[in-house]
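Human:
Focus on the backbone:
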Amino acid sequence: MTRKLFPMAILGVLLFMFSHFVSPEIAFSASKADKKPDPTKKLVFAEKNRIKYEIYKVNLNLPDQLSELDFTYSIEFPSLTQEQFDLLMNRFKGQNLVTWKAGQRYSLIDFLHPKIQALVHRTLEQNYLEFEVPEDWRNPMRPEMEYETGMACWDTVYEVIREFNAPFRDGVTEGRLFHIGAPLVEAVMKNAAFFDKKALQSLSFSGILPGEKGFSERNSGRQFGDVLMIDTMANGGIGAAHVMLWLDDDLYFEKPDMGSQDPFRLVFYEDGVRFWLTDIVISEENREQLHGTFYRYNKPLPDPLSFTGRTYLFDWDKGTYPKGTKPKGTLPKPIADKFIWNLDIGLGGGLSKYRVNPVQRFKMGKDSSCRAIFIGADKDWFKKVF
């Protein structure tokens, strides 16, 4: 039941929730993960360079999580020469945050891009609060509004590639935790002003299918940081069903969904797309409407903070994303600096909530193992699960 609040009280509630992001009472306890060797998987780059490695499938055992989403992979190197260490660091854009030491055991995470290091193997609390707003702030299509925290697959990939080639600076580089509507993110990521047109590659449906059938099609010509968007027109929906970041042949970084128990994780292609090809998401008769596209970004993407305080609507007649207009009311600071107002459009084509979504900003630093972190973000609502 929606609680009726006076406008100033609403602002107070929102500011309090934003400062805490979620209430610690609803945070769940850490899971007890277990890992087992998986000899069926390969790290192709390591194979080509004769680097010894081990791959483990890690069951996270998160409460009330679907089995398809309740795991990640750990790729480990028992020992590396200086030359092998440098090859991995250059390949996976780790920027030498972690340094080489003879005889030391390393994880692939040590070599990954700093933004991935700060996100991987964590969960982010998702929270909702319905509330009423002053009349001049309302969207005539949906008088009620919804406050939402969380991070979806497209938000996750967007944040990693937003300043992909920028050098990491301890205590200076900034990270974002945010959720904004799929139409807005998709519109930016599909804007030719930001990606390399020559590297654009479409996948046939066979290339999207799990398994070896489309292996060559999916991986030929790819490089670390390419983005795979799986789009669908199924069920009347529009746009991206899922977005993943290519790390190596059939190896991806993703967030499978935006729920509190959906981990930022490493997955192999078959595991990353299988869920999205099931009846849970897309019915069998509409599955062949899926298609995939690889994008390679050669320019920084807009900071999500630049979208705050604006309303983005989908133009159904033109079939275009976003069309920005100022809200009718004046958004008092710091509300306008922290929230994105948007309409979310579901895969089913139906209009969901008119939402305000916060953008959390963090300075980035290094933890005791020299991996990148969002300083001050490892709390009950954003925490490691493995």
Residues 1-31, 319-332, 345-352 have pLDDT under 50 and may be disordered. The first helix runs from residue 7 to 20. Residues 46 and 370 are 23 Å apart (CA to CA). The longest strand covers residues 351-366.
